Every structure is written in C-alpha cells, then in structure tokens.
C-alpha cells in the first residue's frame, strides 16, 4: 500500500525533471540540462559543494556533478533557482491538472506535514521541509509530493547503504529487473560503457545478476529487501491517514499522474 501511495502521485512531481518550462528557465540563467537538474534540485540545500550533491543524489557519476557544482552558483543563486522551479512547475502542471485539487491536496499535505516531524537522517528532505508552502493550489500539491518523494528517497539511500550497494550498482540492479533500458539510466547518470560493464561483471561474480543480465534469485531477494526497507521507512509519513483516506488518496492521485503521463510530460511513460 505504501508503494502505491507514493507511485499514485509521483508523476506530479517527477515531471519537473523533464519539463521544457524548467529547462528553458534554467538555460536563461546559463545552465545546461544536467546543470539545471543538479542545481535546481540541490537549491533547497543552499550553495553547497559537489560532494554534498554527490552524497544526496547518490547514483550519478561524481564527475558530471563536479563539472557543474559549485560553478552553477556563480551564475544564479539557489533562491532564484527555487523561484524558477516553482514557476516552471506551475506552468507545466496547468496543462494537465484540473482546477479542483482540494481533496487530494489536503491529504497529501497532511502526509507531508507528518513527514516533517521525522527529519533525522534525511538531508535532502530536510532542506525541502524548511521551505514555506506556496499559495497556488497546483504548487501546494507539487510541493507536498516533492516532500514525500524526498522523504522516501532519503530512506531509499539508507536502505542501499545498509545493503552495501553503490549508486551505479543500484542502477544496474534496476535495469536487471527487465523494467528499464540500460542505455537510458547509464547515459542520464553519465556512467561510461566500461564502468557499466565492470559493474555488471562484478554483480555477476557476486551471484546477483545472471549471464542474461537479469536478476538471479539472490539478486531479486536483495532488491526486494531494499524496496521493502524503503517502504518501511516511508510508511510513517502516511500514518496520519486512515485506511479509508489512504484508499481515497490513491483514487484521487492516480488519475492526476495519468494525466501528466498522457500529456507527454515524462519521456518513455505512456
């Protein structure tokens, strides 16, 4: 149920990483696509160095981060980037979401406010938790899901660390489920073919990935354990909702995410 709650609304947040409305705004202040992604998502942390972004984003090649952070802060302040992100999210979501968002926003905000009571160990989430709620209804829903996403995301990193899985190993294991193409994750995270192949080879030697580059039983058990740990750490955010309200959350949220996907706002999702 926890995974369904998260996934049902995730596209409302996830679209910001692909929206041309965001890319054009970041370009206007001198940031390329990777630079806009790293700087805009990290902006809530303040003008941090590359090491903080490497740590909190986890699965990107450190070199692509170092090529853009902290140089981005010489072009634009974190405060201005957050403003541009809000503007882009509002403009993009206006294309897909209905005007009446009151019920789902109230449920999502309650869960997000509950998550704010559990800051410990969740660095990127805590940075977003300090931001004030926007006034625009669409942005309130966007911000609520941003909080829930980063709350879950920081827990996911803890689960990966607990199981001694590195960033690139997590990507290879994701691809090994058969649900996602290797080239997309490898290229967007800036890992070379050689680095990727070496990681696949290592995971095969450890019995986690087979010769077909899909998960073995041992690999599936490991990945399922990581996902289950992630769910357990995300669950407290939603404990403020009754079982009936959780069901209602999914009923209301899923069509909104579908509308975002159907509008072509997340590549590869239809």
UniProtKB/TrEMBL annotation:
Pfam family, one: HTH_67
The organism of origin for this protein: Lentzea sokolovensis
Listed NCBIfam families: SCO6745_fam_HTH
Protein name per UniProt: SalK
């Amino acid at each position: 149920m926890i995974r369904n709650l998260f996934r049902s609304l995730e596209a409302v947040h996830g679209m910001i990483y692909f929206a041309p409305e965001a890319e054009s705004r970041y370009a206007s202040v001198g940031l390329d696509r990777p630079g806009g992604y790293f700087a805009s998502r990290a902006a809530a942390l303040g003008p941090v160095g590359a090491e903080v972004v490497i740590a909190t984003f986890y699965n990107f090649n450190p070199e692509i981060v170092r090529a853009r952070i902290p140089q981005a802060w010489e072009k634009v302040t974190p405060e201005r980037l957050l403003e541009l992100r809000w503007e882009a999210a509002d403009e993009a979501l206006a294309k897909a979401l209905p005007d009446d968002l009151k019920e789902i926003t109230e449920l999502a905000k309650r869960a997000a406010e509950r998550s704010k009571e559990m800051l410990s160990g969740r660095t990127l989430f805590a940075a977003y938790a300090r931001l004030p709620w926007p006034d625009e209804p669409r942005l309130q829903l966007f911000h609520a899901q941003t909080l829930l996403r980063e709350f879950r995301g920081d827990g996911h990193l803890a689960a990966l660390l607990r199981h001694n899985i590195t960033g690139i190993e997590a990507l290879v294991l994701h691809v090994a489920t058969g649900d996602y193409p290797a080239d997309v994750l490898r290229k967007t995270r800036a890992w070379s073919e050689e680095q990727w192949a070496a990681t696949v080879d290592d995971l095969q030697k450890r019995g986690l990935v087979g010769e077909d580059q899909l998960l073995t039983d041992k690999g599936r058990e490991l990945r399922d354990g990581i996902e289950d740990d992630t769910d357990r750490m995300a669950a407290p955010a939603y404990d403020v909702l009754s079982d009936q309200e959780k069901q209602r959350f999914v009923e209301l949220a899923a069509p909104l995410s579908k509308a975002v996907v159907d509008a072509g706002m997340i590549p590869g999702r239809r």
